[in-house]
Amino acid sequence: MTANKFFLNTIFKSLKNGSSRVFVIAISILLGSAVCSAFVNVYLDIDQKVSRELKTYGANMIFAPANMSENDYISQSDFEALSLKIPSKNLLGSSGYIFTQANIGPTNAILMGVKFSDLKVVKPFLDLRDGALINLDFDDKNVLIGVDLAKQTGFKVGDTIEIRAIGANKGEKVKIKGIVASGDKEDALLIVSLNLAQKIAGKQDLINYAEAVVLGSFDEINNYAKQISTAEISAKPVAKISKTEGLILDKIKLLMAIISLVILLITSMCVNTTLSAILLSRSREIALLRAIGASKKNIVNLFGFETFSVAFLSALIGAILGYVLAQFIGYAVFKSAIDFRILSIFIAMILSLIFAAIAAFYPIKRALKNNMAEILRGE
């Protein structure tokens, strides 16, 4: 009991008298644990967050006629029925497209019929240059015009034009609501509602193809495509987008793991350097303890317990603060919260304690090799 009391009293006085250096160790471990905990939380949540973020690059699944050589169209209602088979939480948006040539005023143009409500989801790079976008799918009175077509025809926002099928005497009057640009084919098209384009083309309930934005890995999207494809409609993932997403995710995860490792190594170096200084300043104390009968094991237990108590408390506080740091990262990068995982607390603490133990091992071992007689000479 007396030995235990002496042991605890020595630890208490050591932590109290060396508070400034102990504080450096505590802060180093706390920061390392916080960063590790934050990155573990983000790492475990990153698949969903980055996957959703990358979906802003456009559609990653396409629906087209199963036999292109025999048929240029698919049924819009059949496509919509197939898209319902994709879990609603994974389907961010979809649209069918139909293209037809028509007269607009004194010139000809190609019309693109789309689902306006999901236009910015499937065509995220469509930039509004003037006017406003259209949000209602059944708006047959307003259209968008590509920037190149607008320059060619001289039409501007607010103009009313008549759209007529080739060879028809009567058409539909519409108003140009916005001028858009994408750097692609849309720049030369007149974008109208799907219903209006089908009416002018005389192709009710028909579309040329469709696109969808689906959450999930390439394999998951590929499985969805195989399950919903029919004899008339072929669903396929856009491999370039879906596979690139997986590569980006892997690289981000690797980067986060490397950063966490570097932070922990820096933490370990701080602990090692500071603990070496502490043990150097306490070399006479260690020699005196040895002189009055303390074994090397007692010394290891004494300084090991001091280091462990500081490291454990710092790692625990750091792991909890790491969740707060994860929220800052989540809102700064993904504009949404990061889910809390209790696993992050254990991983951060275990890694922090392992690196702290490695950092403490050599200073303690070196301190025990000192010549006690020389240190105590003159005392």
From TrEMBL:
Transmembrane annotation, as ranges: 21-44, 254-280, 301-334, 340-362
Residue ranges the record marks as coiled coil: none
Keyword match Repeat: no
Entry's localization field: Cell membrane
Segments forming domain MacB-like periplasmic core: 23-201
Membrane topology, as annotated: Multi-pass membrane protein
Residues annotated as domain ABC3 transporter permease C-terminal: 258-371
Origin: domain of life: Bacteria
Family per similarity comment: Belongs to the ABC-4 integral membrane protein family.
Name of this chain's protein: FtsX-like permease family protein
Keywords in alphabetical order: Cell membrane, Membrane, Transmembrane, Transmembrane helix
InterPro entries named among the record's database cross-references: ABC3_permease_C (IPR003838), MacB_PCD (IPR025857), Macrolide_Exporter_MacB (IPR050250)
Major localization listed first in the record, in broad terms: membrane
UniProt keyword annotation of tRNA processing present: no
A Pfam short name: FtsX
PANTHER family (UniProt xref): ABC TRANSPORTER PERMEASE YTRF (PTHR30572:SF4), MEMBRANE COMPONENT OF TRANSPORTER-RELATED (PTHR30572)
